[in-house]
Fold this protein.
Amino acid sequence: MKNTTKATLYGRREFLASVTGLAGISMATTLPTIALAENLLQTFTVKRVIELILQEVPNAPFPTTVDQLRSGTMDQEVTGIVTTMFPTIEVIERTAKAGANFIIAHETPFYNNQDETDWLQEDDAYRYKIELLNKHRIAIWRFHDYWHAHKPDGIIMGNLLKLGWEKYYDANSPRLLTLPEPTSLKSIVSRTKERLGIPNVRVVGNLDQPCRTIYLAFGYMDSRRQIAAIQQFKPDLILSGETREWETVERVRDGQQIGQKTSLLVLSHSVSEEAGMEYAAKWLQPKVPGIRITHIASANPFTFL
Amino acid sequence: MKNTTKATLYGRREFLASVTGLAGISMATTLPTIALAENLLQTFTVKRVIELILQEVPNAPFPTTVDQLRSGTMDQEVTGIVTTMFPTIEVIERTAKAGANFIIAHETPFYNNQDETDWLQEDDAYRYKIELLNKHRIAIWRFHDYWHAHKPDGIIMGNLLKLGWEKYYDANSPRLLTLPEPTSLKSIVSRTKERLGIPNVRVVGNLDQPCRTIYLAFGYMDSRRQIAAIQQFKPDLILSGETREWETVERVRDGQQIGQKTSLLVLSHSVSEEAGMEYAAKWLQPKVPGIRITHIASANPFTFL
């Protein structure tokens, strides 16, 4: 793969030189033309794209992280990038159809956060997925820990931008959002459904409750941290992606029984971070000129009945 | 506590002797009367009730189990028993009101499966709960691992009885139910909602899909086991309580994309095992004559919107 990539790159530069040579223009004008054309024809390996991303993340690279290459090779030349939440089989098929070969995914392709695959060797969906990735030579890199570690957290900021709440973001307390005035839980439910494109949500709490402070827990977040946050911040609302029912949900319910005001809005995991991966596409685009970046939403798997 | 309990017991027997003595009937008739009356007046400590339960569980007691006494004392005399899924503050208040002092709960009172409390010492809901339990001298014992280890699994059987599916239970493959004929997923959704009293559920799959084999995963179940079951049994449906979205949900979704038929019906944790704890009350009642056992449903905490 490495040799092919280099050969392609070299071939393009040779072609460029021969075209400018044939035009018969002076070096003075040729030089900037070459610079511009080279920029447009610039190629990126998977490794280079990852390096460009890590440059923006404090303390990167991390010694331990799930953000690893899960398929493809570091030195393959990128034909196009897709960002998504879950690299589902459908997302991979649509990536191939779009002519892209690099998926930057927030979540696991292999149904476990550590992306372990030994237990899946006989699993039909896993095998189909691996064959599909190999057939189309598609690289998947997890962009989970680094995107959360970016300042601001890319998932939070992607959501806030869509919700029109980015101006209330507080870098000193990034998970606690304070709205300028209290808004009913009902109205927050409508806003998240409408702006994040979520058909259904689940709530633990009173829909008429006024909410001003919102603890942001998009995706999945450790329950002990959320329960500690209830005690520390006494937020009006926890805005969650996915949470364990025997942990945070029951703590919120008990709190309400003794008069605490903290409610819980559960969006579902995939849709609660999708805006963050859509934002990742926009954020990354200027760093890789000439490479087309598309966001493909893995969307909500659930039907609510 | 131990001395009080013994004193109460002794007092009752003295009273019984004096009543039968006053009646002035012969020993021949008095003896069976005493036996009957003693049975009715029989007292049980928490410890005795637990012993009676463990007698019915293969290989009990287990060296490691979450089924421990979480409040109260082993030797307190039981005034009444409540079975429930989650011993919420509301359930504890209703228990006290009913004059009962022993809650047999399937799930954690302390928002974590191991019932650890060190991290909760400053938590307002935890402190309120502990004070409430102490004030009313209410014992809580987890009946989780032992109830699942009972033959048949008490949670599964409680659900099957309510669903009218108990005759399809197969002791050789207790998690795989085979209906006599295919039923649409839509119709199974209606049946579970109606018979288990669940207002809303979530589905991953096609509502018109015919289902005959159902993999039973009430409550929360390890995703790797569920994913292995998809491969092993190729069930038409997984009937789940709570499951991780990045694990089972995404595996089911990928499977459907490649034409696999396994759908997923998620009931929510509390309501998916409530029938099992209602069944526990009926199952336990004959073992503790004279003790009133009530099932208090902790019910579904969610509003679906």
Summary: Confidence is low (pLDDT under 50) at residues 1-30 of chain A.
